[in-house]
């Protein structure tokens, strides 16, 4: 399953890396691609969407499905 999350507040490559790492730590995630210019994170795997949003928000960014 692929989930696309809108992520607001990323301004640089470090931000992308922080969001990527936060999402990779969620159980069930198999692959993550983060694009700060489009404000999106594409997540593959069977992780719960709520858990993904919470992980991004815990990393300091605004997120929603």
Tell me what you see in this structure.
Helix content is 34%, strand content 35%. The protein is of the alpha+beta class. Strands 2-3-1-4 form a 4-stranded antiparallel beta sheet. Strand 2 and strand 3 form a beta hairpin. The relative contact order is 0.33.
Descriptive terms for the model:
single chain, 65 residues, Alpha-Beta Plaits, four-stranded antiparallel sheet, 34% helix, HMA_dom
Summarize the entry for a quick read.
This protein has 65 residues and is an alpha+beta fold. 34% of the residues lie in helices and 35% in strands.
Profile the largest sheet: 4 strands, antiparallel
Strand sequence of the main sheet, in spatial order? Answer: 2-3-1-4
Ends distance: 14 Å
CATH architecture descriptor text: 2-Layer Sandwich
Please give the domain count: 1
Low-confidence parts: none
Regarding quaternary structure, what we see is single chain
Q: What's the alpha carbon Rg, rounded to whole Å? A: 10 Å
Summarize the helices and strands and which ones pair or pack:
Blueprint: E1 2-8, H1 13-24, E2 29-35, E3 40-45, H2 49-58, E4 62-64
């Amino acid at each position: 399953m692929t989930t696309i999350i809108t992520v607001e507040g990323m301004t640089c490559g470090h931000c992308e890396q922080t969001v990527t790492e936060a999402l990779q730590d969620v159980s069930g995630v198999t692959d993550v691609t983060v694009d700060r210019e489009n404000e999106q994170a594409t997540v593959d795997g069977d992780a719960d969407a709520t858990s993904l949003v919470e992980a991004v928000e815990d990393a300091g960014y605004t997120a929603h499905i």
